[in-house]
## 1
Amino acid sequence: MKDWNDYALILGLHRSITLRATAVALGTTHTTVARRLALLEKQYSANIFERIPGGYRATPFGEQLVATAMQVENVIRDSERRYCASNEKLAGPITLSLGEPMSQFLLASELGEFTRLYPSIQLKVKSSTTFADLDKGEADVVIRGAPKLPEHLIGRRLYKLGLCFYAHKDYCENTPRKDWRWIAPLENEVWPQWLAESPYPEVPIGIAIDDIISRYHAILNGVGMGRAACFMGDPHSDLVRLPGSTPVLKYDIWLLTHPDLYDQPKVKLLMQFLTDALMAKRALVEGDVSVS
């Protein structure tokens, strides 16, 4: 293949799994994606992807093309980074707003890497549970998990956030069943749904904590059982998923900016950097441990 757009199509379907999600990522329609894939497979006289429940999976030949596409992507990204690093417009402050769990558990090293790659840009990170108001200039770029966001903002919906139920690895074995307790959020309106989705709806609440990270540390310290984002719970060797618990894909993860800011080179740069970082961690965020 000589056309980068063909490589982008293969990477897009490999990462997004479905035609519709690939179309959203590439800014086209699912019929166009299907047509272009059919043309590529006709060109090679071989299947590049095979249908599976819920989408598409690369064939052995397709995996070779995916690997090549990743190499091409890396070359392009490297040249773009070199250009951006020498671009005088890529300087000054830029503010990113995201939830504290993401800044601590998911993107800490990546944010550090951004500052090393682009030392002329002063990255300011606002970690908060509230959604920064882009219209009021509270941030330049935001990452948020939410069911729906203001339509006038510009960006992309990446994928869904996976949540699962966890306990310390010794909790269920060393604690009598009658003494099991939930660590719940203070928001009473969300707890009934969480409890209904849990494998142990009969277990009572032992403690309610409003802060996500404090609940996580309570689970980690064996205070009780609780729910956490998969990217927080799965990597820690002292935490295990509760028996019978599988990830539930909840809120869409959005990467957004204001229309007035989108054409700024440093805003585009940060958004592309974060898109790459988050797409690389999709399996972790969704709770797909089979990929790890």
## 2
Amino acid sequence: MKSRIFKGKSLFYGWIIVAAAALGAFFSGPGQTYSVSIFINSYINGFGWSRSLVSGYYSIATLIAGFTLPLVGKAVDKFGHRKMFAVIPTLLGLTCLWMSIVSHPIMLIVGFFFLRLLGQGSMSLLPSTLVAQWFSRHRGKALSIMGIGGVASFAFFPPANNWLIQNFGAETGWRVWSLALFLLMLPVGWFLVRDKPEDMGETPDGKTSKETKEKKKKDTPKRIVFKDNPWMLGQAMKTRAYWFMIYCTSVPAMINTGVTFHMVSIMQTKGFTPTFAALILSVIAMVQFPMTFIAGFMVDRFKIHIIKAIGYLVYAANLLILLLGTSQQILLVYAALHGVFMAFESVSTNVLWPNYFGRKYQGTIRGTAMTAMVIGSSLGPLPFGFAYDYFSGYSEILFIMMIFSLTASIPAFFSPPPIYSHDGNGSS
């Protein structure tokens, strides 16, 4: 369906797509750990459920959601982004309504499952794969702008949830997000989203072939340009780069979820209040916001696997700061460095899959990658909880997570873009 809104205008419709995708990334919030964690005490205090029970249900639901996510990726490839941008927000809005009436542990685990599948998984998958359809040479820049929605979500949802719960109760909080999804995200998805530029008589980046050739000659420094080869999932899975990057992207998902879920407790073991823990999360988001633009510039010009390899080394060093830090100043340095890492990790991961394996089947390929990330995130909270129960602190588990980050840098370094073979077999 060709939109007439911008017909005859110089504005490339892809930038409208970026804005819609940024809103989609923002509305992944109801299913993200940084948002859900604010509601946890409401269930513990309101129903007398134990923290280990709620944490266990959350991990189980996240794990099951991870295995289900590839179905969403296939649906994106089959039905297109526009239809999915109508279906997923609707289902997520209904899930928020469900969470407002939870009164039994079984209802809680069902709600957690759909929050993680539709929020963390689907509403992260849809925006990134949509933007990648509309941009090629400027993919990094476009995805970094889209990422602002995710950063804004990280900064906005925790304090907003806390305010809603304190003033109106957890039930009302969930209903507010349900209403917002129905009134904001759903119409934007249906009326503004278009599947790909070719549907509107345009090309990725909004440039003609002649303009693209001229731009290549003028670019300084040179951008790294990838051929849009139509990798299928089976072909991608035969490459070393696919499996190495699956592992690499799942490691920070595991660590980040574990640290974020227990951030209040981690800060309390160091003698700080929950308010300071909230400040740490806010600083991460505030630093991540401007660094997202720098990350977008960098991934368009430098090798993604090298950026990732360096990033995981920096992340390991930053976990050491969190482990050893005892003053507010040092812990704020940790938060700032974490924001830098998150900016580069988010943008580089979003750019990685379409650059390595093309646009055509990216819903399916990215869906499997998101599965690994969601499964990784499901493995984060429980080890931290067990560590606290057995060691009365988090030193041991933070050291182990630091080792995981170091090991992720090695396969990342040895994962350059695979070579596409027209005989149906890819090679690393």
## 3
Amino acid sequence: MGRYISSNEAIWHILSFPIHERDPAVQHLAIHLENGQRVYFTEENVLQRAFEAPKTTLTEFFTLCQKPDVFGQFAKTLVYGDVPRYFTWNKSSKKWEPRKQGKPHPSITGIFKAKTLGRLYTVHPKQRECFYLCLLLVNVPGPTSFEFLRTVNGRVFNTYQDACRELQLLEDDNHWDLTLADAALTSTPNNIRQLFAIILTTCYPSQAQTLWEKYKNCMTEDILHRIRQINQCQNIDYTPEMYNEALVLIEDLYVLISNLPLNHYDMPSPNRPATDLVDTDLQRENQYDHGSLATIIMNSEPLLIAEQKIIYDRITLAVAAEQGGFLF
């Protein structure tokens, strides 16, 4: 199938002029956790691939910074994204090699600078540790290992998030603190729990558990009131069981919003009853109004065109027969 070409574009094609160009060049840079490289294998090389982790631009950046020569010492002054300006990535040998052309470095012989840009692959904040690893890579020059990135002032942290916090790379949670403080004065415990769930799932505070510890009484107040009413005793105080019940309610909100458990947000996991652990997903699947869904089907099915009706019938038959398949 052809397309219309204007006279200007036609003459450029006829005279073999370049149609487009990219300047400056862009080098994609891998981002992954330790031993988190993508591994491609076949039946013949599966064992070899399992024992020999593939080299990436990130692991070889660490290797480059470990070298004692002038290039390694210079690499230790660079952050990850600046490496392609002075080094080229050899795809066959999987190594960073010093550039041989470009603008010479004013004080170091053999170092040349080009306009090439390093582009780190985007990491979503939901991939928490990988996101904080990326944050460290764009701020910490010359890392020699993953552990190096988790080390601040001689102290090795367990997580990249803790290292980011120690380096003061994370935003202050004061804004979310003030938001919850305001809600605690005017909102019900149920509304505060909903607000807390939204903050954690969409705003990614750096110290979620600190916010929970500060406002857990406000989020558990209705549970305390219910227990006092049941026992006809106003002297009952907050207990770990009440906080656990509040955490269960908050986790249910998290699952509805982001389909992730509470501990994904660096929060304590609630102790659920054994039956609840088994039936949580089943309850979510069974909470639909079958009557209203049947009405929607009855009203919508006659509106399907012929091709849509064929696909609809195939899918419904496969579901009714409990048979899997690929339908396009």
## 4
Amino acid sequence: MALAHTILAVLSHAPCSGYDVSKQFEDCVSFFWKATQQQIYRELGKMQERGWVSYEIVPQAGKPDKKIYALTSAGMAELNHWCDEPSEPTPIREDLLVKVLASPYLPKASILNELRRRRQIHDRLLKECLATEAEFLALPEPHPSDIGRYLTLRRGIRFEQSWVDWCDEMLALFEQSHPFMPEAIGSLHQNNTMNNN
């Protein structure tokens, strides 16, 4: 998936400024797509050249004029064409898992501290997602444009919940004295290294 398709998806809901697009990235899609404001503005320029978006200049009193971007028929056609393509799983790059992979030979306290820190992060994000969900469910009549946001929010909730659950599982394992846990294997590795020297 290209950044352009994410922007097209955002603009499919309603025309908005580049700043508003970046806010949508922060508020709605940050858990499945990251982009800086500079990247978004640069991509909007390319999309305008391709004819996927158009913009209207809106004067602002005491401020620079604002560009309001809207999806064109060509942009909607591109979004539909892209939707017909198969979506492959995204490769994962997760440095915490690399640390856990090497954990038998690393200080146990370092791994525990990192697991606790990450649990706090994902627990905070989970609570934010749940609060957003509660706001949505309290709406008397959700707008059709809110439905897609809610469905992706559900994925965000499950994503953060799975991280919290996994961190809890790992913390329980690392805090116990299993024979395959880091201290025992680390000592064995250290002894083997000394014997080989």
